[in-house]
Write a structure and sequence with these properties.
Elements (H helix, E strand, L loop, with lengths): L11 H4 L1 E14 L7 E3 L6 E7 L6 E12 L6 H15 L6 E12 L5 E4 L8 E4 L5 H16 L7 H4 L9 H16 L2
Antiparallel strand pairs: 1-4, 1-5, 2-3, 3-4, 6-7
Length: about 190
């Protein structure tokens, strides 16, 4: 089963993660106007920037800018968040042209800040979990590609215990309990 937040093992994995909504805007800019890079800041709300090519023959590339995150279901100002991203971008990257793309997505934030990668002991032994990416899915996919094959072959991996989906969030029990209460309240509405 491939999902952003696992649907197996009841609500165990859901209670260990906070759900956040992130927003992304894609701007066209003239090819070569900016060196390829990956940028992020540590503002509250933070921003992240990366580039991608439209195609090899295109005269423009796309500057992808995201951020303005909030807890899922806690804000209803999507247009304002897109506008804030556009303003933030135009101040820092004056060469961008029109907005060509806009989207938002769900980000799973583990309450202890570390992704869940591996076998969850509450599940079937042949079921593996990769979640809690905090927007770093490419990084965690690479880590998962190193850990999970070892686990499938019943071998040890030195990072397996760090990312173990069965671990208790001992470093942040208060957040874990708060998220559990919020989760219960949301499901109680149904």
């Amino acid at each position: 089963v491939a999902t952003n937040s696992p649907i197996n093992a009841g609500l165990v994995m859901h209670a260990k993660q906070m759900q956040w909504r992130t927003y992304v805007v894609g701007f066209l800019y003239p090819k070569g106007a900016f060196e390829p890079c990956l940028v992020w800041d540590n503002l509250d709300s933070y921003h992240y920037v990366r580039m991608t090519k439209l195609n090899h023959n295109a005269t423009h590339d796309v500057l992808i800018v995201g951020g303005e995150d909030h807890e899922t279901g806690r804000a209803h100002d999507m247009d304002q968040r897109y506008s804030s991203l556009e303003n933030w971008t135009r101040e820092r990257f004056p060469f961008v042209e029109e907005v060509s793309f806009r989207w938002s997505g769900q980000v799973c934030e583990p309450v202890d800040g570390v992704a869940f990668i591996g076998r969850n002991r509450q599940d079937h032994p042949n079921m593996f979990v990769v979640t809690g990416d905090s927007g770093m899915g490419m990084t965690h996919a690479t880590i998962a590609s190193m850990i999970i094959p070892e686990l499938i072959q019943n071998r040890e991996h030195p990072w397996a215990s760090l990312y173990d989906p069965s671990r208790a969030p001992v470093h942040n029990k208060t957040e874990f309990l708060k998220e559990g209460v919020k989760l219960s309240a949301q499901y109680g509405k149904y």
